[in-house]
């Protein structure tokens, strides 16, 4: 079996800000005749085994680190259960391991653990485990996941008794409930491990959870750079029992390997339309889906030449999104970061004459002998466009970002703006982002479950630890963002969302480009998969109990 996996060559692919190419793949049952060992498609138990391939690397089968990797998030979602779970069918967040109440002032969430929640090793879960997860780990100053940690800053968490946990907020936050989907950790396993060492613990390879599946053995990193893990049904799980007894995950390091191994999988997720042509789809069904994420050109409002609104407006007017979409595999244009709204109402429409007029009005004029505009001080209107370098991790993503940035540079050159493109690998790019050392940044943002814009557009997040990549600051926008947080119910939020979209459109802190459309290619023998309304890639497993392998 080891020799078989050595034939699968691959390159590493992993990203925090964008860890965007999730692939789900299953081996055909016919190979079960050939592969007879524990890593095969054996049907000795009478149940077929799903093998799903992912693009990336398995590193932490631990729910408190899964924001950093879609691969880990997908697998961990089957191993662990949380206080809350997302239900794509209803587009609501349901109670999972506990019931809850919310105080009249919308500040105190009280959770009471349900009876019969058992860890896979046989011990019963208590509120001690919940308190340990959120207070002893997530709120610990040495916890190494800043994304998850920031969600619970300032939240007072208490344990009145062995069955109850309370979360007290400083102000009402309608998005807070959706933050409680994090899988609960077993205190009896991890209580003696220093928080700063949990990310290096063997628990990440052989976790103990309370979800519908459990790890059989531990995950393995193979000599060909693939990583593999097998999950089996957890007979102590409190919820509906899946019909699929085993799921085997293989993490390849690039999508080309996935395509090259078409003969051994049943399905693949996060496939672009441009990649489908390279795949034999004769026995596959194709399901399209979108996620709440977008790619944008962020304009640093603190940079020397982008402080003026008219210069940013000119950039927006000079960019032809139709041309940009034509060179990508995407079809859906984005014009506002508020994805709940009709996108067509918020666009600064492509108009070269208006772009040139805005530049002239802001003091940037053409000299007949020059290609680029200059101001009264004879400074050239030259901007640095920074992007992620994917050349060593994801060839398709590299082509997309390289092509899009090149087209943007050409379009801005038409109106006299010089664009210097710089590409950096993730470590160097993160340092540049922390220091906001750029004029323009081509990047993606994922809103995940709650569509809360606070982290991305509130002025308090325009610092080295924040995700306000444009350094955008507007008191009116802050007020609206805060009010949207305090408002419960989508209908009630509509007016503030519309007002916020107008404010952002007028200020032009970014040029919003597109949202990706993905395809899930699934063998026709597999039924019950429902991708409608999923918000994160792992949500395809939300109805795993209904999947049937015919």
Number of strands: 22
Outline the biggest β-sheet.
6 strands, mixed
Structural class: alpha+beta
| CATH top level class name of the largest domain | Alpha Beta
What is the overall silhouette? Answer: globular
Give the terminus-to-terminus CA distance: 26 Å
Percentage of β-strand residues: 15-25%
Number of helices: 15
Number of domains: 3
Specify the helix fraction band: 10-25%
Q: Please name the fourth-level CATH homologous superfamily of the largest domain.
A: Dipeptide-binding Protein, Domain 3
Radius of gyration: 25 Å
**pLDDT averaged over residues:** 88
Could you please say which CATH topology of the largest domain applies here?
A: Dipeptide-binding Protein, domain 3
Strand adjacency order, main sheet? 15-19-14-18-16-17
CATH architecture of the largest domain: Roll
Low-confidence stretches: 1-46
């Amino acid at each position: 079996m080891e020799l078989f996996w050595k034939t699968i060559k691959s390159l590493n692919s992993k990203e925090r800000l964008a860890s965007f190419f999730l692939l789900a793949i299953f081996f055909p049952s016919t190979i079960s005749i050939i592969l007879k060992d524990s890593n095969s498609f054996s049907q000795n138990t009478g149940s077929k085994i799903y093998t799903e391939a992912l693009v990336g690397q398995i590193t932490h089968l631990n729910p408190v680190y899964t924001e950093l990797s879609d691969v880990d998030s997908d697998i961990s979602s089957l191993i662990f259960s949380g206080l809350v779970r997302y239900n794509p069918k209803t587009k609501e967040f349901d109670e999972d391991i506990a019931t809850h109440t919310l105080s009249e002032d919308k500040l105190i969430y009280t959770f009471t653990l349900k009876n019969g929640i058992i860890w896979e090793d046989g011990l019963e879960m208590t509120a001690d485990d919940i308190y340990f997860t959120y207070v002893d780990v997530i709120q610990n100053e040495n916890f190494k996941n800043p994304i998850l940690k920031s969600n619970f800053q300032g939240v007072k968490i208490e344990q009145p008794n062995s069955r109850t946990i309370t979360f007290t907020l400083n102000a009402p936050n309608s998005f807070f409930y959706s933050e409680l989907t994090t899988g609960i950790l077993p205190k009896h396993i991890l209580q003696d491990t220093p928080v700063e060492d949990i990310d290096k613990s063997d628990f990440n390879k052989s976790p103990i959870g309370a979800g519908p599946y459990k790890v059989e053995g531990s995950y393995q990193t193979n000599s060909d750079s693939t990583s593999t893990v097998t999950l089996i049904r957890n007979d102590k799980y409190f919820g509906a029992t899946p019909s699929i007894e085993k799921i085997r995950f293989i993490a390849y390091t690039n999508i080309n390997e996935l395509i090259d191994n078409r003969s051994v999988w049943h399905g693949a997720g996060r496939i672009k339309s441009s990649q489908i042509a390279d795949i034999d789809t004769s026995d596959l069904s194709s399901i399209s889906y979108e996620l709440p994420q977008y790619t944008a050109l962020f304009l640093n409002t603190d940079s020397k030449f982008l402080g003026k609104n008219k210069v940013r407006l000119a950039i927006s007017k000079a960019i032809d999104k139709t041309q940009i979409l034509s060179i990508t595999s995407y079809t859906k244009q984005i014009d506002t970061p508020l994805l709940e709204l009709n996108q067509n109402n918020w666009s600064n429409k492509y108009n070269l004459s208006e772009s040139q007029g805005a530049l002239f009005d802001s003091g940037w004029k053409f000299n007949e002998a020059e290609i680029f505009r200059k101001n009264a001080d004879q400074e050239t209107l030259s901007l640095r466009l920074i992007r992620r370098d994917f050349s060593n991790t994801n060839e398709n993503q590299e082509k997309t970002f390289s092509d899009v940035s090149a087209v943007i540079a050409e379009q801005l050159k038409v109106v006299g703006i010089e664009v210097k493109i710089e590409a950096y690998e993730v470590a160097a790019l993160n340092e540049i982002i922390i220091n906001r050392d750029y004029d323009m940044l081509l990047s993606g943002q994922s809103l995940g479950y709650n569509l809360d814009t606070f982290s991305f557009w509130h002025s308090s997040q325009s610092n080295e630890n924040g995700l306000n990549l444009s350094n955008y600051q507007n008191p009116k926008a802050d007020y609206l963002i805060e009010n949207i947080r305090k408002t419960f119910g989508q209908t009630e939020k509509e007016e503030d969302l519309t007002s916020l979209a107008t404010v952002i459109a007028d200020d032009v802190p970014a040029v919003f480009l597109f949202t990706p459309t993905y395809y899930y290619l699934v063998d026709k023998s597999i039924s019950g998969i429902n991708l409608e309304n999923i918000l994160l890639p792992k949500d395809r497993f939300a109805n795993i109990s209904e999947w049937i392998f015919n």
